[in-house]
């Protein structure tokens, strides 16, 4: 009796979404859940879902970039106010504090490239804290520049929401293995 040196190899199928090698008896890819043995309609629905998420991700990324601009504008505004306080009002302590806060905003703007949600949220907390502290020492400062304060708060809230949305869409795309799908 002759034994075969080639045991029966299990048939496999490569996922067209993430290139993961799967057993041919699976209906969905074990890595990205692509319907490897599904109908063409199932496969198209999956690809449409990923394309829709990519579109939403692109839209959601625009607003954190706007918020980064807001952080930069705020850094410039605080810097100029610090110079004004130091040079015109001869208030060296306020000038130094404002210059440090401006530097902190610049650091947060740079960090927003890697973590927009964390950077925008931190900048917002610093902005609110700075205004509360100013109002504690000088209550009339709460109403000075109220429209500018409302503008910055609104911009930060939109930026925080968008950064959170973008983060959620990115996690969804990673779960679906969308990075391997070419632009259709």
List the helices and strands and how they pair.
Blueprint: E1 12-14, E2 21-23, H1 40-87, H2 92-111, H3 116-137, H4 146-176
Task: List its salient traits.
66% helix; single chain; disordered C terminus; disordered N terminus; 184 residues; 3% strand; two-stranded antiparallel sheet; 2 domains; 4 helices; mainly alpha; 2 strands
Distance between the termini: 55 Å
Order of helices and strands: EEHHHH
Instruction: Label the overall shape.
Output: rod-shaped
**Number of DSSP strands?**
2
Counting structural domains, the number is 2
Proportion of strand residues:
under 5%
What is the helical fraction, as a range of percent? 55-70%
Gyration radius, in Å: 27 Å
Strand order of the largest sheet: 1-2
Q: Mean pLDDT, rounded to whole units? A: 82
Count of discrete alpha- or pi-helical segments spanning 4 or more residues: 4
Low-confidence stretches: 1-8, 179-184
- The structure class reads mainly alpha
């Amino acid at each position: 009796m002759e034994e075969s040196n080639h045991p029966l190899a299990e048939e496999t199928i490569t996922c067209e979404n993430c290139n993961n090698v799967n057993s041919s008896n699976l209906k969905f890819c074990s890595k990205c859940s692509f319907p490897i043995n599904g109908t063409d309609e199932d496969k198209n629905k999956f690809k449409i879902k990923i394309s829709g998420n990519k579109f939403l991700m692109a839209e959601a990324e625009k607003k954190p970039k706007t918020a980064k601009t807001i952080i930069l504008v705020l850094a410039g505004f605080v810097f100029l106010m610090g110079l004004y306080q130091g040079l015109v009002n001869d208030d060296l302590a306020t000038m130094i504090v404002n210059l440090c806060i401006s530097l902190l905003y610049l650091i947060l703007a740079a960090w927003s490239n890697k973590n927009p949600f964390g950077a925008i949220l931190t900048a917002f907390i610093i902005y609110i804290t700075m205004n509360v502290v100013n109002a504690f020492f000088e209550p009339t400062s709460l109403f000075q520049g109220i429209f500018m304060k409302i503008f910055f708060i609104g911009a930060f809230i939109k930026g925080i929401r968008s950064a959170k949305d973008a983060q959620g869409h990115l996690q969804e795309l990673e779960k679906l293995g969308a990075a391997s799908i070419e632009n259709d």
